[in-house]
Amino acid sequence: MPQRALSVLCLLFLSYSSSLFAESFTLPIWKEEAEARGYDLPEAFGLNVSYMKQTQDISVDSVGFEGTYPIDLGWFGKHNVPLGDVVQIEPVGTGKQMSEVLTLRGDVWLFPFLNLYGIVGTLNGYSETTIKVKPLKSDALSRNMPFRLELDGTLYGAGIVLAGGYKDVFALVDASYTETELNVIDGTISSIVVSPRIGYDFTRFGAPLRLWIGAMYQDVEQSLSGNLTDIGLTGSLGNLVGAVDDGRFNVEQHLVAPWNPLIGMQYKIHDRLYLLGEAGLGDRKSLFLTVDMRF
């Protein structure tokens, strides 16, 4: 397990263990004042397991291949030339990205309006677009071909939640920073996610249910690179790459739509157990499910 992911996992454990000492002090701070004003606060410490699946459009800024390609010069033997002198690669249109994320999150309400959390998990998914392959050393025509990258790795990060409300109406902003260390592809994916929400609490009507609407902003840096032999290129491009011993790829891409709307709900099964579901609409489709345990 990567060292940073292990550190986050330890943070989650410490967050859970801290609940054992809650009797010596009261969390969140100003709990009594908030409850005196009529607010129903959850238990201070939490541990939850979440699953999220999302699909969205991506724009590929550039695709580059590096390495040397052997050319047979007859009596003069073989000569290695840069791969970029043999074939030109260009992205075509927009692509698609799908990801599934399973996470473990530990959190604490430090104040009634401020929650801090750490998160660790796994990511599985792919990024797929179309590239135009143009041979430079022959009269062959350029061809459009699929180009797919498997995005699997370990995710870790931290975030904060700012919350407030008036009577049965509540609002909150969730902001987090995560990094995903990829397994096959070199480098990391860095993500900043900010999600404002506003909703209504139906508890006083006899239903332990909260409903809300909101939006999600994602700022994702994706500079991906790795060995050409690891990404399973097929056809004529695969044959070309198969002759390159030191071939590598470099991809720069970004999300097409940084914002998308959200709708969600939370149902309280018990004072210490909650179920949460949220769906993303618009250009980014997502489904988010959580089981939250409070201590």
Automatic annotation (TrEMBL):
Residues of the signal peptide: 1-22
Swiss-Prot/TrEMBL keywords: Receptor, Signal
The protein's name: TonB-dependent receptor
Organism of origin: Aliivibrio finisterrensis
Lineage: Bacteria, Pseudomonadati, Pseudomonadota, Gammaproteobacteria, Vibrionales
